[in-house]
């Protein structure tokens, strides 16, 4: 019987939002899911794909950005904007293995524009990590 995943409560600060989820799967499995169409779309939006540093991306709903850093099985950082007229904010996804059977995903969303609702972003990143977790099983 597999151990239940540990989900930590999201945090927010005046500077950004942090959401962490521990998945009861090895890092190789979770990273593999992140690199699929479904994993990329969970983070970026339908139609968008994670890629190498410097690659631009655009989702069907108008969200867009550029991959700023890409370190396989460790970290992906990207600019994220809600639409072409919105200022860019920074999303950092960290991937770590606290042990062989678990993977911790942490999304940190910073450089938020004035007026952005942190509660909305918390919910958005919680849903993304939940979707990635469900795709791991």
Automatic annotation (TrEMBL):
InterPro entries, per database record: ASHA1/2-like_C, START-like_dom_sf
UniProt name for this protein: Activator of Hsp90 ATPase homologue 1/2-like C-terminal domain-containing protein
Organism domain of life: Bacteria
Record-linked Pfam families: AHSA1
Similarity field: Belongs to the AHA1 family.
UniProt source species: Propionibacterium acidifaciens F0233
Domain Activator of Hsp90 ATPase homologue 1/2-like C-terminal span(s) in chain numbering: 26-133
Organism lineage: Bacteria, Bacillati, Actinomycetota, Actinomycetes, Propionibacteriales
């Amino acid at each position: 019987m597999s151990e239940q995943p540990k989900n930590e409560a999201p945090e927010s600060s005046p500077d950004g939002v942090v959401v962490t989820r521990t998945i009861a799967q090895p890092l190789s499995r979770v990273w593999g899911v992140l690199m699929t169409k479904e994993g990329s779309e969970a983070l970026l939006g339908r139609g968008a794909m994670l890629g190498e540093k410097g690659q631009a991306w655009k989702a069907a709903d108008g969200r867009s950005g550029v991959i700023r850093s890409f370190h396989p099985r460790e970290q992906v950082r990207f600019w994220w904007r809600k639409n072409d007229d919105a200022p860019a904010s920074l999303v950092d996804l960290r991937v770590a293995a606290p042990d062989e059977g678990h993977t911790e995903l942490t999304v940190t969303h910073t450089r938020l524009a004035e007026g952005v609702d942190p509660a909305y972003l918390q919910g958005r990143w919680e849903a993304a990590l939940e979707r990635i977790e469900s795709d791991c099983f």
